[in-house]
Amino acid sequence: MNKILKPCRSSCEMLMKNCMHAFEAIEMAWPYFLDCDRFFVGEEEGCYDPLERLRGVHEFVVDNSIPEQPSTIIQFTYHSHSQMINILKKTAAKCSDISRAYSIGHSFEGKDLLVIEFSNNPGQHDLLEPEVKYIGNMHGNEVLGRELLIYLAQYLCSEYLLGNGRIQTLINTTRIHLLSSMNPDGYDLAASEVEDAYEQEDAEGPRYNGWTSGRANGQNIDLNRNFPDLTSIVYWRQRNKGFRTDHIPIPDSYWFGKVAPETYAVMKWIRSIPFVLSASLHGGDLVVSYPYDFSRHPEEEKMFSPTPDEQVFKLLAKAYADQHPVMSDQSHDRCGGAFASKKGIVNGALWYSFPGGMADFNYLHTNCFEITVELGCDKFPGESELYTAWQENKEALLTYMETVHRGIKGIVTDESGKAIKGARISVRGIRHDVTTAEDGDYWRILPSGVHIITASARGYSKVMKKIRLPSRLMKAGRVDFALKRVVEPNRFVSIPQDNYDRFDPYNQFDEYRRSGRRQPEAETQEKPWWWSYFALLGNNQPTWLLRRN
């Protein structure tokens, strides 16, 4: 028989159901010749079912092997800015019940600073639910953190949909924010140099130094030196009795300096959400450092300079380092440093001192505790190393977020049950308070042991409680406070409003932005990563595989 028989439409639909998610994952269009409408419906029209013999035996198995929501295929490759934005927005759309993508501003060259959020109530702060953030690519040429956060976003989405109990618990009890790239302009410069290096590669591979190229933003500003130097203010205040090391206002003089738009955007973001925990992902070494990053002696570049929360910061740093198989390995040193003997953690100022860092700013201006994670010796590792890096850091990234549930949390109200915003939560022996959020809730990360906790607010009496945190406590203990209002005698002069709420009071940044910053640029349509393999075909390139947006 010379008649050509084609598969029936049901066979095409089965193939499409099983394979479409793989095409979507790599942004490839479904082949036109597999358009199922082109196939006959049944055998009477001249088609056949190649799976007919297998269907009776394996149908039950096959149907149950296909999940309702197929797992995301993570591409362990580098992503341009537009590709990163596209992936994050698609991930947020795929998991719209637990995720959203939002912008906190633009870079100097106009690129979107896009954050993807995961929560059981995206877009809203839920009472007693702690807020966590990861920031990657602060230095444009330190790129691994950028990619890890792109992978993490896809992983959280797909694992939640697949019913991973650990991921579902994390997202249902924690509000997570991922800023994959704080410095997209610097990344573009560094990435372009990598491309040039590959064009000139020798037998040993591309020669990319990358120690400084792309580190700064589009204005040549090092973003991790551009935050207000509040640490110097703390050191100066230590001479006075009863000095504070928390919620220090930004000096008005800061705004008359050169403030990068990326720095400005992140500061507004930090002030707008009651973050509890944070990590900034860097590269060039393999260690976790924690505040203070600025030495308490201006002439000493390497001097141990602990915060009042030294114990807490060591706990947080170890939470990440201990889950990283190489960082926690004490058998040999890496990157020319001696951090193996320190179990992969170090006080920032003891390593090397610098002012204007983001971690110190988080700690001294807000309730947020931030560490700095150096992810590896190479600032711009080869693509072949990305999968290994993900495997080494995945558990550490998850464990660190879960650490936000260490310590205590609670609500501060008045006698009638009305929430008190801005109440101070003090821990005896730690000269650093946290304050309550808009709804009166607070979080205080603490090590295990016995603690004396005091809640206070202007116009209310103080309340003190003694608590004990067991070493194996897996979630934050609940400690609420009800404060009694006190009538202050008229002879007391009211205390003037704190300067903490003053943010760019003279609109210096807006003036500077109007005079010098570039306008946001339109995103250009880029070819997907796999197109380079087909580009060699010349005139026979399968352009029908490119998706039309």
TrEMBL record:
Active site per UniProt: E374 (proton donor/acceptor)
Entry's Gene Ontology BP terms: peptide metabolic process; protein processing
Keyword Transcription annotated: no
Name of the featured protein: Carboxypeptidase Z
Classification of source organism: Eukaryota, Metazoa, Chordata, Craniata, Vertebrata
Cross-referenced SUPFAM superfamilies: Carboxypeptidase regulatory domain-like, Frizzled cysteine-rich domain, Zn-dependent exopeptidases
Record-linked SMART domains: Zn_pept
GO CC annotation: extracellular space
One Pfam family of this chain: CarboxypepD_reg
Disulphide bridges: C12-C36
GO molecular function: metallocarboxypeptidase activity; zinc ion binding
Family: Belongs to the peptidase M14 family.
Cofactor(s) essential for the protein: Zn(2+)
Keywords of this entry: Carboxypeptidase, Disulfide bond, Glycoprotein, Hydrolase, Metal-binding, Metalloprotease, Protease, Zinc
Occurrences of domain Peptidase M14 (ranges): 77-404
Keyword Protease annotated: yes
Domain of life according to the entry: Eukaryota
Domain FZ residues, every copy: 1-50
